[in-house]
């Protein structure tokens, strides 16, 4: 639902009909100007009283967020909360900002195709800051319920304050052209015909790069689903995700969260659903007893912590999180070590990410959980600590194509070459994880990407070179972390690995594969689970 329908930002944004802009009966542009400095009607926003004024804080926050993502490779889900706090934007204005910021990021490809049709030179030759402004304005005009005159005038004011007076005139002219058509009319013009170019059509309609459309289509088929689901998957990747909370084991319960407005989660036994907004003000979050975490991530950790109970054949005393940052899964695993009288080692390569892990597990450590953190290279840890751990989580770095709902910038930042480089690293990390596993221990190989080159192919390639590893059926292990009411009807595919999907499960597209280290080479013909 549009944030404007929930109250919006200004009365001016909520009322007022679409101005009579565009062209007159003779094809002339109708700006409404009555001379230099005279009153301007319709789409123009250059009234003397508005010259030099800044746009609204909400739009400035959205613009600054886009700039940080473009210039500093920042992450959207980290940038926005900080900017909202620093600019003191809250309530309905924060909701408006969130929709504008994330929406314009998700729609970037489609918006650029439309803007390219409205600009007299290649879009890449336009000042990048100006392109950011235009995207924000076009998104308000085409995708939100902001009144057109408010969308245009506020965007022009943003351009004037952030880029310059000349930019304001340019933005005004371009947005007048954008506003002459509806979103559906623009798509009909700029998107290739589906019959002739299905990938190109989907790329514009759902605003994903062509290579991502192809990769996700292949992933559906490769994981046993129909290619015809691609529209549903791409649409789900563009939908704002619900806020899911995770309850740290032993530190809180659902009743406490219900008292603060939460409700039961949809899938995970440790999940709660947050209605809307930032739950950071709740005491349980401030104290580290509750955190924000997608239910798919929870199920990946729970498959190893709960579902592997009947699968582990080793001394179950030492657990390992090989790529622990930022610490969400480590905290969930760490809280569950108590029931197994085990300890957890959480490893992260970068010191600043190790600090994030330490913050995530601090409250659990204070409660008596044996969790230690270490800054180390996960690719060599298996050689340093061979055969030590009964349970190993290898939640490896990946392209993030399964989390585009919450990190929409990844679709524009990643390239096919990145996937190739990452898959090499993923193979090395999985090999290290298997080396670190004790005989009879279980390794969970997890990615937040359904890309075949990061999931099934990585596992297949690693297993080709090892006779001491067997793949287990992960479906029952995943069900162990699912609420009892849904354990029998959750759709987990043909196995043995589990691929979750946004359009099927309402989670990020997590891939969960369980592997068991054998004490001796497997005998040919022996069942693998």
From TrEMBL:
Similarity comment: Belongs to the class I-like SAM-binding methyltransferase superfamily. RsmB/NOP family.
Name of this protein: Methyltransferase
Database matches in PANTHER family: NOP2 YEAST -RELATED NOL1/NOP2/FMU SUN DOMAIN-CONTAINING (PTHR22807), RIBOSOMAL RNA SMALL SUBUNIT METHYLTRANSFERASE B-RELATED (PTHR22807:SF53)
GO biological process terms held by the UniProt record: regulation of DNA-templated transcription; RNA methylation
Pfam families for the chain: Methyltr_RsmB-F, NusB
Extent of Basic and acidic residues compositional bias: 1-39
Active site: 448
Molecular function in Gene Ontology: RNA binding; RNA methyltransferase activity
SUPFAM superfamilies: NusB-like, S-adenosyl-L-methionine-dependent methyltransferases
Region (Disordered): 1-59
Organism from which the protein derives: Brachybacterium alimentarium
Keywords (A to Z) from UniProt: Methyltransferase, RNA-binding, S-adenosyl-L-methionine, Transferase
Boundaries of every SAM-dependent MTase RsmB/NOP-type domain copy: 216-518
Residues that coordinate or bind S-adenosyl-L-methionine: 323-329, 348, 377, 395
């Amino acid at each position: 639902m549009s944030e404007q329908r929930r109250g919006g930002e200004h009365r001016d944004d909520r009322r007022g009909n679409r101005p009579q802009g565009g062209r007159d009966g003779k094809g002339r542009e109708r700006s409404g100007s009555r001379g230099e400095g005279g009153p301007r009607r319709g789409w123009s926003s250059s009234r003397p009283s508005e010259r030099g004024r800044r746009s609204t804080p909400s739009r400035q926050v959205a613009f600054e967020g886009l700039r940080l993502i473009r210039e500093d490779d920042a992450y959207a889900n980290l940038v926005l909360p900080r900017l909202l706090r620093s600019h003191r934007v809250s309530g309905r204005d924060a909701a408006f900002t969130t929709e504008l910021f994330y929406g314009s990021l998700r729609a970037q490809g489609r918006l650029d195709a439309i803007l390219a049709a409205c600009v007299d030179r290649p879009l890449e030759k336009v000042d990048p800051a100006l392109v950011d402004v235009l995207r924000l304005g076009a998104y308000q005009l085409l995708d939100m319920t902001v009144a057109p005159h408010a969308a245009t005038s506020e965007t022009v004011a943003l351009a004037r304050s952030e880029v310059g007076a000349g930019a304001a005139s340019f933005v005004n002219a371009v947005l007048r052209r954008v506003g002459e058509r509806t979103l559906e009319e623009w798509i009909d013009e700029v998107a290739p015909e589906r019959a002739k170019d299905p990938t190109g059509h989907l790329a514009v309609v759902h605003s994903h790069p062509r290579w991502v459309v192809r990769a996700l289509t292949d992933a559906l088929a490769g994981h046993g689903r129909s290619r015809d689901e691609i529209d549903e998957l791409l649409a789900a990747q563009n939908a704002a995700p619900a806020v899911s909370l995770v309850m740290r084991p032993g530190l809180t319960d659902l009743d406490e969260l219900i008292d603060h407005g939460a409700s039961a989660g949809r899938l995970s036994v440790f999940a709660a659903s947050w209605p809307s907004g930032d739950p950071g003000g709740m005491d349980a979050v401030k104290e580290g007893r509750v955190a924000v975490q997608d239910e798919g991530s929870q199920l990946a950790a729970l498959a190893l912590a709960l579902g592997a109970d009947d699968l582990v054949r080793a001394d179950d005393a030492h657990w390992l999180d090989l790529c622990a940052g930022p610490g969400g899964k480590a905290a969930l695993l760490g809280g569950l070590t108590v029931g197994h009288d085990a300890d957890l080692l959480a490893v992260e390569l970068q010191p600043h990410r190790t600090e994030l892990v330490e913050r995530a597990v601090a409250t659990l450590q204070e409660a008596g959980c044996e969790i230690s953190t270490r800054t180390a290279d996960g690719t060599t840890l298996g050689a340093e600590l061979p055969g030590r751990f009964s349970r190993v989580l290898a939640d490896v770095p990946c392209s993030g194509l399964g989390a585009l709902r919450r990190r929409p910038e990844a679709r524009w930042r990643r390239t096919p070459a990145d996937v190739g480089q990452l898959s090499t690293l993923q193979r090395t990390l999985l090999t290290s994880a298997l080396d670190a596993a004790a005989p009879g221990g279980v390794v969970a190989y997890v990615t937040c990407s359904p890309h075949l080159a990061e999931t099934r192919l990585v596992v297949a390639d690693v297993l080709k070179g090892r006779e001491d590893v067997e793949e287990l059926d992960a479906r029952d292990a995943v069900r162990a972390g699912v609420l009892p009411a849904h354990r029998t009807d959750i759709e987990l595919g043909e196995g043995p690995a589990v691929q979750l999907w946004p359009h099927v499960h309402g989670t990020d597209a997590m891939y969960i594969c369980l592997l068991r280290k054998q004490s001796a080479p497997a005998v040919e013909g022996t069942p693998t689970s």
